[in-house]
User: What shape does this take?
Amino acid sequence: MTRPQRNRKTALIVALAVAAAIALPRASRAEDSQLDKMRAKIAAFVGDKMEKLGGSRIVYKVDADGLRESVITDLRDDVYKTLRENKIAFSGLAIRDGGVELKIADARARDLLARKLASAAEGLPSHALTVTDGGDGLVRLAPTEAASAARLRDLVEDSVAMIEQRLKDSGIRLASVQPDGTDRIRIFVPGEMNPEQTTAIFARKIKVGFRLVDLSMPGEQAQSGTPPEGSEVLLGFKDNKPYLVAKGSALEGDDVSYAGPGFATGTKEPIAWFRFNGRGTRRFAHLTAENVGRPFAIVLDDKVVSAPVIREPITGGSGQISGNFTLEEASSVAMLLRAGSLPGHLDLVEQRVVQPAAKP
Assistant: This one.
């Protein structure tokens, strides 16, 4: 991921809607193959350096159980949201045995729920569901095996990208970060004989926040003076412009259930789009309803990515971020949105020093 140029002064805008973007697949098979080849070359080069210099070997394990729990919780919230929006009578909505169960007496209503959920997951293989009729109005919903595997692959890939970026940001250019099996990540850092110092670099959680903009004074004035109590000045992600924003976030990264790069409808401009979970959808609907006409800021690691004005209550639970992005920049922003809760899904399995002339 390349760092965006700060001297490009581009106004960022957000358009929020239920179906605001065309989703791109995470990667084509050709791109996957190229990435695998590149990583294999890096691993071979770094392995040679490890033998000569020694260094740190670090292994992380993705918390697959925690991932499944969060996916099922999000599914329950999405089901509840769909039921309420479509005025479907139901009872007994609960998480049970790795899925979501509820009762819907009307057969047509059960079909409607299944269609709505399938439509919401269209273009997202990682969100595919199995819907089982248990008889007597009982409906059971659960992620497909393929969807669960796709979610795990996505999390591993996001974790690898996050770790690589953190190492680069810290000035570490020579390192190998590789998926290891289905749920592990192996890191080699030649010449680094203090693995604890390396793990500290990417142990920090990426901060994702949706904050209201403070209109009591211009950002430039607050930057040169004293910001009002409860607010602070943050700089723009691309334009380095000062923004005066509330210190507290109305929504955070844990409220984002999915994010990805895509193209805006009509203009085909590269964008980063996101979708809230059920809790985030409700909170964002309340935030926008209470603050029509007021700007809010999307903040990634204390950088304002965008600060659009709320034109009307947003109840659809999804949106897009645009701003003359390259596709790579849109992918980077989407990765950061997804990565907000990544450290909570990573468990440190091993960190040790590899001595020179030893096999890593």
In short: The CA atoms of residues 205 and 343 lie 6 Å apart.
